[in-house]
Every structure is written in C-alpha cells, then in structure tokens.
C-alpha cells in the first residue's frame, strides 16, 4: 500500500509511549546551526517506524540527571524514506545543542515511533493545489509533505513560501532546489529573507501582515487552494490563519503545526468559594490496559497518569506536539490551552492530557482511540 492510497491514521498498530534505541546512521551539517540526523531502523522495527508525510518522532536523552524529550518532524518522503529529522540549535536547547555539537554516527538515541496528523490523504487521481507557509525549522515536516505530494499526486501543484533571516539560515536548500528542478511546472518556491535583499521586494523583509497579504495575493485566489499547511512560530501561524479566514478559506482546509510556544503547563483552574477540591478518579486505557488513579482539579491528567504508568505518552507538555492526545470517553475536563488539535478532533472528543484538568468526579480517557 502506498502513501498515496493510505488513509490518515492507517499506520501500523504501535504502542504509545514506548521508546526504541536506534543507531545514528549519519549527521549532516545543513547550516551553521542545524543538522540532519538519519537513524538506522533495523528490519524488525521497519513497520513500527513506517510513517506518513508530516509526522514527527519523539527523542529522549538523559542530561544532567534529568530526562529530556523533544519532538522533531520527519523530513523524508513517506512512507519508506529514511527516518531523518532536522535539528536546529535553540538557545538553551538541551537536545538541539547535543545534536549539533556532539552527536555522531554510531551513537544510540531513544526514539518513539512516528505520531502526528499534519497531513491529508493523498489522491493520485486528482489535480489539486497545495500551499505551505513555513519559517525556519518549520520546513522539516513541510519538506516531507512537498516531496510526497509531488510524487504521489502527479497532476497536483505545490507552492512553498519559506521565511528565513538570511540565505545561510535556509535548511534543506539543496533538496528544495532539486525538487524545483525535477518539477519546474508544479513546484513554486518563494524564499523570503528578512535580513537580506532578495530577488524582488516581495521576497525581501520580515513577513508582517502587510507582506503576508502581498504574498497570499501573489499566490492566487485562496479559494482555489485545496489545502494550506502552516508551520512556524505562533505569531506567524495565527496571522496566516486570520488572513485566510478573511479570504473565505474554510478552517478544514487549513492545517498547522507549531514547534514551540512560550507557555508550558496550563494555568490553575479557577474555582468558586463553594467548589471543593475533592479528588477525581481517572481511568485511562493505554496499549489495551486500563489503569485508575486519583487526581485533583489542579493536576493535569497526564501528571496523574505518569504516577502509575511511566509509559504514558508525552513530549513537550506545552499543548503543542499532540503526543499526549487521547479521547475523552466519560466525564468533563478543562483544557485552556490547545495548539495541536484541529476542530474536527475536538468535535470527536479528543483532548490533550498534558493540558486537561478534571471538572467531574470521574474521568475516563482512551489513549488507544
């Protein structure tokens, strides 16, 4: 079965929260502060690590006696491309600094199998228009989306608006250029540089609301685009979503992924004077086994789950990655922060357990759903 014919979610059954030690096959320098890391997946884990375009993996490392987990998007064509991620150095980044400065072929890294829904089912028989807007390391999942779509939807087109500070900061520039050479009539690339003069005024300067409006107008009628993919900082993603909504683009055509937001744990839930802080019984199903634990109204469900199941899945704990996604089966919760779930997922009852606090006497969630 090819990536083009697989429906979203039709990936091999895999245990949530389980890490596998993978050997690093190569570490390739992309820019002064970014590398591409390729892992060697042994044959017995090939199905476990089979991925869809736009998905991500979670890596784990113990640093200074503390466990560090980070999400990185897979930047290879799905479903059988090499398991490769792009890692850009972040200020204070425990894993990104390690990957850029110390990681080398032959090293072993704990890796969780691919997760994520930053994609749509591909349709080889249709001619669709796709547009992506990415900034910096936001190119990593988008590169997989572009390469897979151009290969498996032979009549479709893809436009990429890629924002960076300078030409030296552009990750995967050679691969993007190769895609443009192979598909000159189907792939349009607009490199926008904020600190360098580009080929035209449109591709020079910071992508503010005025620049964004000009770029979207240059791309063409928004209503003619089948799917929009946004990946970058929250400010940019929110600006694009607002602009597209103003142009009449339905929310279900806009897909986004964030790598980082400043907020972390959800704020304490406000309770009235008469409202008690009685404990809640949480029942959660993970890998076919149901476990119960008591929690309280000020404790995220994930925190309670981790007290009794160390394999409860999570990564960022900031409501961004979606690794802790579960379906709410019974009870009610308060989830003040969500950067990962789309409207259809919310309507289907999915929550982020790292951000959800109980508001009923009992809560039941299913990580396997």
TrEMBL record:
Record-linked Pfam families: FAD_binding_6, Fer2, NAD_binding_1
Names of the cofactor(s): FAD
Domain FAD-binding FR-type residue range list: 17-121
Sequence ranges assigned to domain 2Fe-2S ferredoxin-type in this UniProt record: 280-369
GO process annotations (BP): phenylacetate catabolic process
Keyword Iron carried by entry: yes
NCBIfam families in alphabetical order: PA_CoA_Oxy5
Annotated protein name in UniProt: Ring-1,2-phenylacetyl-CoA epoxidase subunit PaaE
Organism field: Nocardiopsis composta
């Amino acid at each position: 079965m090819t990536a083009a014919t697989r429906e979203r979610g039709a990936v091999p059954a895999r245990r949530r929260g389980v890490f596998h030690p993978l050997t690093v096959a190569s570490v390739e320098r992309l820019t002064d502060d970014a590398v591409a890391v390729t892992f060697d997946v042994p044959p017995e884990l090939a199905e476990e690590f089979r991925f869809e375009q736009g998905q991500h993996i979670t890596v784990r490392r113990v640093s200074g006696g503390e466990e560090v987990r980070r999400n990185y998007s897979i930047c290879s064509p799905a479903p059988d491309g090499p398991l490769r991620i792009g890692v850009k150095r972040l200020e204070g980044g425990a894993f990104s600094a390690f990957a850029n400065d110390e990681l080398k072929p032959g090293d072993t890294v704990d890796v969780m199998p691919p997760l994520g829904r930053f994609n749509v089912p591909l349709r080889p028989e249709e001619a669709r228009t796709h547009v992506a807007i990415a900034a910096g390391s936001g190119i990593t999942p988008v590169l997989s989306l572009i390469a897979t779509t151009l290969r498996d939807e032979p009549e479709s087109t893809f436009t990429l608006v890629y924002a960076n500070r300078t030409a030296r900061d552009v990750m995967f520039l050679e691969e993007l250029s190769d895609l443009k050479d192979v598909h000159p009539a189907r792939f349009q690339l607009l490199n926008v540089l904020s600190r360098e003069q580009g080929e035209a005024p449109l591709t020079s300067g910071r992508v503010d609301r005025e620049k964004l409006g000009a770029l979207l107008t240059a791309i063409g009628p928004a209503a003619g685009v089948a799917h929009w993919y946004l990946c970058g900082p929250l400010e940019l993603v929110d600006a694009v979503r607002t602009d597209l909504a103003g142009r009449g683009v339905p929310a279900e055509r806009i897909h986004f992924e964030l790598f980082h937001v400043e907020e972390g744990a959800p704020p304490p839930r406000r309770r009235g004077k008469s409202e008690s802080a009685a404990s809640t019984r949480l029942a959660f199903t993970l890998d076919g086994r149901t476990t119960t634990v008591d929690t309280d109204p000020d404790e995220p469900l994930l925190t309670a789950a981790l007290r009794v199941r160390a394999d409860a899945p999570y990564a960022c704990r900031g409501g961004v990655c979606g690794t802790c996604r579960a379906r709410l089966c019974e009870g009610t919760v308060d989830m003040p922060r969500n950067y990962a779930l789309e409207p259809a997922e919310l309507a289907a009852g999915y929550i982020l357990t790292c951000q959800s606090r109980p508001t009923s006497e009992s809560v039941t969630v299913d990580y396997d759903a």
